[in-house]
Amino acid sequence: MKNTILFLLILSSFTLITSCNENNEYESSQFNLTFNFSHSWDEKTVTNTDFNTIQFTNAHGESLSITKLRYLISRITFEKPNGETLTLDGYNLVDVTNNSNTSFTPIPKIPEGTYSKVSFIFGFNNEDNYDLNYPDLNSVSWNVPEMLGGGYHYMQLEGKFIDNSSTETSYAYHTIRAVNNRVTPQVFKDTFFEVDLGEVTILNDTTFHINMNISKWFDTPNIWNLNDLNNMLMPNFDAQIDMFENGQNVFSLKSIKP
């Protein structure tokens, strides 16, 4: 009897140690991920040192500058081959103007393995967009007026361009959820979109380098005429749809490095 009890105690201790070792092994296979956002105008790298100077030309032929660029990304999601998904907490307001938040390390860590799809949302989806409890966004004038449906901006891109009369004119290319507020009730159309970064294998801490080609906001598939569409774009339902379509071609994955 004593031998039986001793054996059970030894077996119980072994099971506990094995379980702890398995947990330690599991914990050790979790890795940090960093998302770095760079910016370009076609082949030219763009930083805030390039702002406030008219030096870019869009597909319609207008010469323009950039004075502000900031945009929101959210819901970074990893999808396994079996369809299971892991969505990371948090969101990130990339502020190129002030050179802040161009690098983002979300929480939590990611288990090692191969993921068939990695993606993020440009802007907020509808569920996130109407939770107004984001003090940091509320404090930086990121809100959308209630008359336009409320919620938050997805992007603010501003600058100046040379118009048809050779005059330097301001533009404000702001993206939000498309709304037609000329009818009652208001008509909405979703204009957030998913950016698919493709398949990736995570074996250690990993950095994703993602580029926004700013010129694409003005040319693919809709050639943008700044003389006609330069301001008051937020309440312009059709313009928001065109910006949504152009946004599909803006982001690209440049590299993934450990």
Automatic annotation (TrEMBL):
Pfam families: MbnP. Keywords: Signal. This is Copper-binding protein MbnP-like domain-containing protein. It comes from Algibacter mikhailovii. Residues 32-225 form the Copper-binding protein MbnP-like domain. Residues 1-18 form the signal peptide.
